[in-house]
Amino acid sequence: MQTIGIIGAGAWGTALATAARRAGPKVILQAHEAEVAESINTVRENTAFLAGVRLDDGIRATTNMAEAIDADAVLLVAPAQFLRSACETAKPHWKPGTPAIICAKGIEQYTFKLMSDVVSEVLGDAAPIAVLSGPTFAIEVARDMPTALTLACADEKLGQSLCETLSSRCFRTYYSNDVIGAQLGGAVKNVMAIACGIVEGRAMGDNARAALVTRGLAEIARLGSVLGADEHTLMGLSGLGDLTLTCNAMQSRNFSLGVQLGQGRKLSDILAERKAVTEGVFTAAAVTELARRKQVDMPICLAVDGVLNHGVDLDAIITGLLSRPLNVE
């Protein structure tokens, strides 16, 4: 593969552009904002979303969707709630057989669907689907710091080819055939990270956060079992790995949002100060409804959704979680 297209020029899309370029292919990066594309092409830096990282001359930005998807494979890095519209824009220009590598982490609001279902609905058989997910902070990938991810694809030959195309010395991709599991861990961990941030903001201690991460993983596994995910995937990079990273670092937008909520700030005020999307805010409602429909018990997700979207008092939520029955683990 000689050229990689990337839809979405936020911090993560730009970081993935640096990783793909280090692996060899030229990169065409689609930006929604004209000023972002101009900044990348003229000063070789995404000053709006990933300042301080010089971009290789082999990375070119454009606002033209058709240009970005004229590639051997396309990474879909638009935020989860905008992925459907991005694919609809791309559809008339999509070359049949071009792989679509989903890098967005979330569950679609109102339809409660995983990103692979959304992409399949829009692009159909024209786009073989893969998922790239794992414990990653954009700035560390951009600075070529060691990173390991899962690349999931039902077609093993294609999946292995994509792994070889994207991997470099410090950017390691490991093949899996579990497309559902690779997505589920990355989506729900954002909700768990908000919960862990609340614990941090409330100064409830490391014991509480460790318990929350552990019970959060159990919730993800319960939902995964119903949806057909492989439990081993959820114990790997795109499951436990991503959960561990996101629930323990202020670099995480979801964790830092939870910290501010725990300190008593209003959600609307926090979001008003942010340029980038905090995916867990949207996924909390979607995963809670999905769990209800599938009759899966997910009390932490339900609690986070209550705080974010239904005005439930934070102290009442904490009391409710601490009052749950002492069942067998």
Summary?
This protein has 329 residues and is of the alpha/beta class.
Folded structure, characterized:
The chain has helices at 11-23, 34-43, 65-68, 83-90, 115-123, 138-142, 156-166, 179-201, 206-227, 231-234, 237-246, 253-262, 267-272, 279-294, 299-309, 314-322, and strands spanning 3-7, 26-30, 59-62, 73-76, 100-102, 129-133, 147-153, 171-176. By secondary structure, the protein is of the alpha/beta class. It has two domains: 3-177, Rossmann fold, CATH 3.40.50.720; 180-322, N-(1-d-carboxylethyl)-l-norvaline Dehydrogenase, domain 2 (Orthogonal Bundle). It has an eight-stranded mixed β-sheet, sandwiched between helices. Helix 7 (156-166) links the parallel strand 7 and strand 8. It is globular. The mean pLDDT is 94.
